[in-house]
Specification:
- This protein has 390 residues and is α+β, with helices and mostly antiparallel strands.
- The protein contains ten helices and 19 strands.
- Helix 7 links the parallel strand 11 and strand 12.
- The longest helix is centred in the first third of the chain and has 30 residues.
- The chain is globular, with a radius of gyration of 27 Å.
Length: 390
């Protein structure tokens, strides 16, 4: 046994209290950095233990990994891991570069190869949902339903879809090698990137003065393009309207609101409910409503904003839908860009159709089911002809 003199005991006690003071100061600073709420406070023991474990693991990597790790990648992976822990395919963290590309797509222009992807949960792969006309992907023979297995030799699952998309894009006139899976067979394609302008609206006048508007996606310019298309059809004497949202994976809710102002009149478009049960209602105005029979064409790839529009038309009895049951995405995401250019997308609420139907993983059943894609538009024309001639 070692004896301790009185003077030594006093020195030890002084050092002990100095150590405690350092720990307390560190805890105060750490608490402020972590929560940043404008006041100082202590880190609860459980929280401190959790972050202490993270720091210990980080130090082990930095000290023992066989080569010098990229600290920025470690940091980004930490944030991405936080969101992946939600088990929600719609919530994700984005680096500054990824955030920039995401916002570029929302404007309707980006550099890439021209296809839209989604999650194929049955296989765990990334699925091609649609291929844009006159795009490098279309010219290379990429087809809807192809599964993206690897990009430049690196394999990706649907949980890494954002990273895969980031690597599919790149500088104009450069190429990317993508491995697809089609009918159980792997197909390698090397595709040259170019600037893609997303044409979100196509319209034409069909027989018997039936107007047709195809909404391919709900982008920033879509609402204005829809208005122009509708005005042109009205000037030609339109008597009924078909809105085609087949293969439309969604987009901006504000665009749905603007379109509904033209086709619904004063009505509830959709309402959301958050974790606390708080409800928020989105409504359209009655200033510009068209008084024409409407058919919405849907299929299994009609999702998100497409489903909100479809549900609003059906529940407000403004028209019917023809085709297949929609995808079934009843969750609302908020997006925030941070000061350093990075950002995140987070599912913040559920949404319900005006009649209170929750469609997540269920979709919206069509008024008239037509599974054959080639017969969906003819059926809509037949239905509207009957309505017009009554």
């Amino acid at each position: 046994m070692v004896k301790v003199s009185g003077e030594m005991k006093n020195n030890i006690e002084r050092r002990f209290f100095k150590t405690i003071l350092v720990v307390l100061v560190t805890a105060i600073v750490t608490s402020f950095v972590l929560v940043n709420v404008g006041f100082l406070g202590f880190v609860p023991p459980a929280e401190y233990k959790r972050y202490a474990k993270y720091k210990a693991l980080e130090q082990s990597i930095k000290r023992e990994f066989y080569k010098k790790p990229d600290e920025k990648k470690l940091e980004d992976a930490t944030y991405k891991g936080l969101f992946s822990g939600l088990d929600d395919v719609y919530s994700a963290y984005y680096t500054a570069d990824e955030m920039k590309q995401l916002l570029e797509v929302a404007t309707g222009k980006y550099v890439g190869i021209g296809f839209v992807v989604g999650a194929d949960k049955a296989t765990g792969a990334i699925r091609v949902e649609s291929v844009m006309n006159n795009s490098p992907a279309k010219e290379s023979g990429v087809k809807k339903g192809d599964l993206v297995v690897a990009v430049n030799g690196k394999k990706y699952s649907y949980m890494e879809m954002d990273i895969a998309v980031k690597n599919i894009r790149g500088p104009e006139n450069t190429s990317v090698k993508i491995t697809f899976l089609r009918d159980g067979k792997k197909i390698d394609k090397t595709i040259t990137r170019k600037e893609i302008k997303i044409v979100s609206i196509e319209s034409k006048m069909l027989e018997d003065k039936i107007g047709y508007i195809n909404i391919k996606s709900f982008e920033e310019e879509t609402a204005e393009d829809f208005r122009k298309a509708l005005a042109s059809l009205e000037a030609q004497g339109m008597k009924a309207l078909i809105i085609d949202v087949r293969d439309d994976g969604g987009g901006l809710l504000t665009v749905v609101e603007d379109i509904c102002d033209r086709i619904l009149g004063k009505a509830v478009i959709v309402y959301t409910k958050d974790r606390q049960g708080k409800k928020e209602y989105l409504k359209s105005s009655d200033k510009e409503k068209i008084d024409k029979p409407i058919v919405v064409l849907t299929n299994r790839s009609s999702a998100s904003a497409s489903e909100i529009l479809t549900g609003a038309v059906l529940d407000n009895k403004a028209g019917i839908s023809i085709g297949e049951t929609t995808y079934g995405k009843g969750l609302v995401q908020g997006m925030l860009k941070l000061k350093d250019g990075s950002g995140y997308k987070l599912t913040t609420a559920q949404y319900f159709t005006p009649n209170g139907n929750y469609i997540d993983k269920k979709g919206i059943k069509p008024t008239i089911e037509v599974k054959d894609k080639d017969q969906q538009l003819p059926k809509a024309i037949e239905y509207l002809k009957d309505k017009i001639n009554k």
